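Aggregate trends can hide what the representation actually does to any particular protein. The sequence in question and its structure tokens are set out directly beneath this paragraph.
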Amino acid sequence: MLDSHKLTALLPFLLLAVACGGDDGDDKKNDAGGDFTTSVPNDKPLGSLTDAESEQLCEDLSDYLSGSSFETDAQEVGCRSAGILAAVFSQPKTDAAARSACKSGYDECKAAPAESNQQCDKPDASCMATVDDYKACMADMPAYLDQVKGTFPSCAELTLADFDAIADEPPATPASCAALDAKCSDGGPEVIPGGAP
């Protein structure tokens, strides 16, 4: 069974995910992906962005996220984690009971209205990471999200043994995002809707 120490270790990865919510019906999403681009100068430190540049970077980020599968993938991670948390807190005695509780939590999450908790604040003046540093982190986020998604089994595959495995092997934050965080006490602009990496 997952003890409170392991649950505490798991929480940052659960908080990483976007809040639960169903498909918002936005048909402009595509899987073409591509790199995050912005017209803000690449060598400019985030802490020295003008208000207009900061707003432009945030708009570019929003466009990038809405034009990719990132939000859908993040929602899937969020709902899988919601299902697993529902299973953990139900204290199941069997794999079947764990799967049932997981499916209930997952389904409730998927049925919930989409929540937009994207927030993009101007970085603190002390942030020395550049726009290029930010772009590098963004380039690594889709693969990182896939890795995180891979740590959460589907409810149909969930076993009691998975509870410990999920908490024991969290994926490492991409080096590019750790470097961004180290250069910015506030983590820079939000990398993931609803939270920093």
